[in-house]
Design the sequence.
């Protein structure tokens, strides 16, 4: 059987996926605090989104989780955590790998 899915379709899906994420909500000791997406890395069919808490942000507070949100405030991805933030910066990463299968009916 010939390849049904062409690489360009996967490229378009990866680009589209990356664009859905607008900001993050970080659970700091029970309080939800909004943070911007710090950086995005696209490598092949992998999309990485990073959220960065500055040295002075939330020092001594417990980070209970992080969520990536769309522009309308809908949660798109969650990550549970249980980390006490020190006085150094803190980077939270989310990885998304795109895989697509298709079959043809003859």
Sequence:
């Amino acid at each position: 059987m010939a390849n049904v899915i062409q690489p360009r379709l996967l490229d378009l899906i990866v680009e589209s996926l990356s664009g859905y994420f607008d900001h993050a909500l970080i659970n700091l000791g029970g309080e939800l605090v909004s943070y911007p997406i710090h950086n995005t890395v696209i490598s092949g069919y992998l999309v990485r989104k990073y959220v960065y808490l500055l040295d002075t942000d939330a020092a001594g507070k417990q980070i209970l989780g992080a969520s990536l949100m769309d522009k309308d405030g809908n949660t798109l991805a969650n990550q549970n955590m249980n980390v006490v933030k020190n006085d150094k910066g803190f980077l939270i990463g989310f990885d998304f790998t795109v895989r697509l299968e298709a079959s043809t009916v003859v």
Remarks:
- Residues 11 and 44 are 8 Å apart (CA to CA).
